[in-house]
Amino acid sequence: MESLSRIAELLSCFESRAHWPVGELLTQQQIPTSTGYKLIKALQSRGLLSSPGRGVLTLGPAAQAFFYAPVKHVPAPVTAPAWARGGYGRTDRPAVSRVAQWNNGLLNLVDTERFRKPPPYVVGFANASLSNPWRVAMVGSLTAAARRQRDVAQLVVRDAHDDPELQVAQLQEMRAQGIDLLILSAAAGSDPRLDAAVSELATRGLPIIGIDRHCGGPEDMVSFVTASDLVIGRVSALWLAELLGGKGCVLMLCGRRDASPCQMRLQAAKEVFSLHPQIEIVGIEFTDWQAVQAQAAVSRMLTSGQVPDGVWSDSGLQSIGSLQAFAAAGFRKGAIPPHTGGDINIMYKTALQMRVPLCALDYPAAMGALAFQTALETLSGRQVPRRVETNLEVVVSRGHETTSVRADVLAEEKVRWDRENDFVHAAGWIPAAMRTRPRPAVP
Fold it and tell me: Can you state the angle between helices 345-353 and 316-328, rounded to 10 degrees?
C-alpha cells in the first residue's frame, strides 16, 4: 500500500505541470534518489512515465490513457465525421464520473480536530467578485446553504471586485472581526501580496477552505472545493479536435489570465491540440469571462477575413459573445463553426437556435454549498478530503458526439427554454428571492 500511495503521489505531480526534471520531482516527493530511480524505471517500463529529453519526465502513453478512459466508456458505432456532415445520436445516457486524472488529493483526508470548536460559528467568505452570472450563482448557492444552518451565527461576505489588493485588506478586516473559518475564492492566482496574506492567516491557525480559484500554497488550505478544470479543458478540446477530423484552425477564448481555472483549462486543452499536428491555434484571447470582450475579439478576426474552423472556449460566459459576433457578421443557421462552453442558459439557447455543434462541461456553481458544508465539518473536527470535486456532466448537441466524447445529457435536453437567459445550470437549489442577486448577511 505504501508503494501504491507513493506512485499515486508521484503521478499526481503532473496535474500542475506537464514536464518535471527528475531531481526536482524526487525532491518534491521526498523520495530517496536510489529508490526514486528504481521507481521511475519501473513506471517507464510500463508506459506510465516517459522521458522526452535527458533528465526530464512526462506522463507516458499508459498514464495518458487514464486521462481519457472515462470519456471512452462507450465505443462509437461509426468514425466521427466532420461537424458539417452531421453525426449520430444515441438513446442511452450512462452517468459516468468525469474525475479523469490521477488525483491523490481526493483520497487524502485531513484531520481537523485542532479546529474543533462549539457553535455558533462566524464564517467569513472572501469572494473574488460578482462579475458574471456564474459567480452570482455560486455565491447564491453558498449563502443559501449558510441560511439553512442553525450552527451559524453570522456569514461575513466580502466582494473583492477581482482586485487582489482589496481582497488582502478584506482578509485582514475579517480576521479582526473574529471569524472562526475563512472560505476563500481568490481574486488572483499568483499575486505575492495575496499569497502572503493567506499564508499568514493559515500560520495563525485560521482554517481556510478554498473554492474554485487557487491561491497560496497547498499547505495553507485545509481543503479545496472545485470541479476538475483539467477534465474540462481536455474533454472539450478532444471533442473539438475529433469533430474537425484532426485538422483545422482553432480560436481559443479564455477567461481571466490570473485565475487558476483559466490557466489549467488552457494548458490542458493545448496539450490535447498538440497531439493533432494539423490543428492550428490561430489565436488565444483572454476575455475576463465577459461576453462583450469575446464578441469584440471574434468580430476583429471575422472582419480581417479569417474564419476559424472551431472555437474552443473554457466557459459559455464568453462563447456566447462569439456566437453573437458570428450572427452579427451574417452567418446563418447551420453555418457557424462548432463551439465549446456551457454553464449559462443563453449559450445553450443560442447554440441550438443557430444549429451550432456544441460541447459543454458545466462548472457546477453548486460547489458553493459544498464548500460551506466542508467548512462546517472542519469546525466540527471531522476529517475532510484535501480536495473535494463536484462531478461534471458532458453535454453535446444532438448528432455531434465523437469517437471518444459521448454525451451524458444532450444539449437539447439540458437547455431550459422556460428559464431566464442568465440562468446558470448546475447551480443547485437557490431560493427564489436570491436568484438574481445574493443577499449575504453583513455585520
Answer: 30
